Amino acid sequence: MTQTRRTRSWWGWGHVEDALSDEECAQLTDRVRALIPDADLTVHDPPDPHDITLPAPRIELPGPLAHLASDEHIDRLSHSHGKAFRDVVRALHGEFDSVPDQIVRPTTEQDVVDVLSWAGDAGVVVIPFGGGSSVVGGVEPRDRTGGAGVVSLDMSAMDRVLELDEVSRSARIQAGTFGPHLEDQLRPSGYTLRHFPQSFEFSTVGGWLATRAGGHYATGYTHIDDLTQSLRVVSPAGVSESRRLPGSGAGPSPDRMFLGSEGILGVITEAWLRVQPRPRWKATASVAFAEYDRGVDAVRELSQSGLAPSNCRLLDPVEAKINAGSTSSVLVLGFESTDHPVQPWMGRALEIARDHSGELTGPVTYTDSATTTGVDRSTGDAAQSWRSSFIRMPYQRDALAARGMIVETFETACTWSMFPALKAAVEAAAATAMEEVGVTGALSCRFTHVYPDGPAPYFGVYGAGEWGRTVEQWDHIKRAVSDALIAHGGTITHHHAVGRDHVPWYREQRPDLFAAALRAAKDALDPAGVLNPGVLLRERT
Questions:
Q1: How confident is the model at residue 1 (pLDDT cuts 50, 70, 90)?
Q2: How far apart are CA 79 and CA 10, in angstroms?
Q3: Which of 26, 229, 247, 278 could form a disulfide with 272 if both were Cys (CB 3.0 to 4.6 A apart)?
Q4: How far apart are CA 177 and CA 159, in angstroms?
Q5: pTM score, two decimals?
Q6: Is it the case that residue 376 has pLDDT exceeding 70?
Q7: Which one-letter DSSP state was computed for residue 531?
Q8: How far is C-alpha 29 from the chain's CA centre?
């Protein structure tokens, strides 16, 4: 059977073929008009990419490496930015102030070594590139119009599972492996990495590691940190490989230095990651709360109960209304197991929810993959409505961005005791900032992850912007809410990384001595300063 080849969007999210249909766009604009009646939803189509003028490449790779390089027009455009709202809008306007000169796709680790050696000698900037799904300016050659040139080091040709240790339940995986291709390679052996960020289809193992990505699951092993057994990293100073161990007390962890380093210390080429059997038993439910604070209390008790639900996402009334069609706060609750049925765990979780005045919005769905071929999704409850919307959210964002809407998110984490004040401060900051730039809209909140000591709130901004000013308007709102997060004890990012966009607030969050130690590591591993300058640390002048 011939498989249809799909086309990645050069300006927006995902595949061109998966963009919203006319019917979906009509339904979406109807929901926006109900929320913001005065919104101007005129459609602005992206330009023809070939009409965008790019500067000529400043560099060519030397003969032995030339076959790895591309300076093709669309290639340079699509590697010049990530997938944040501001990236999408700038692309819609045809604004490409900085683009890489060459796209280089290594096929072996030695290729990476050779590229970094050449770049260090030539003073050429190298930006590691996985799937390009960064939403914080992490892969953007910002302010690089001067200098010797920029290479986008696209790791996607290194995309294999090299070994599977079934006894230890771990796999050696190349960094350029995209999420679906990774799972396809593990599936015949019955294993899964069980790491499913929203960007899963369009992000890579190396990108997850370099940004300390968080997966879909609300508790347990959801961060890529928890799944990392060892790393192999190529820096300009040499190759580092840590020992495969389930745990170690031998000094600071070498893996921790590279996890979250966002390509400034070296290029992750492969990793041993912990895998597990694919889950057999699952349960899903949705619970409504008339009072949002009761839902927060229920989730806190759930997170501290030891039940470890796989999904425990609380949607506030705005989020539930926009994406689930509910007028109440909604808790999306799930359990799964490879070892045992999960009815008792779900039953106890629902008892906790009822103790806080929660009510089921539909029947609980229990599945056993050994006896069923699929999951019945016909219940029409709020949880399923939200799940369906969750998958389509980035495409919805693109459609609304093209209609002059500001649709963007920011996320954080804080302790349970700090959450009420933080949420109130963020709401006040967003409302004031939107008023200051003439944006009418709403702020939503959901929990993506929960811990015994605190939640990870994920905020969404939906506002009617002014076409031509929406990036400027969003940047003003972003600054205000970021200030509020830091002032009220939150982190500037829970799972979206720092990139270039979060650096001012990251500097406020991190201890000064740690910053000095990170700078020393950068100088030791990348003495010429060619790796992703401007991320995490100020550039040397």
A1: very low
A2: 9
A3: 229
A4: 4
A5: 0.95
A6: no
A7: B
A8: 26
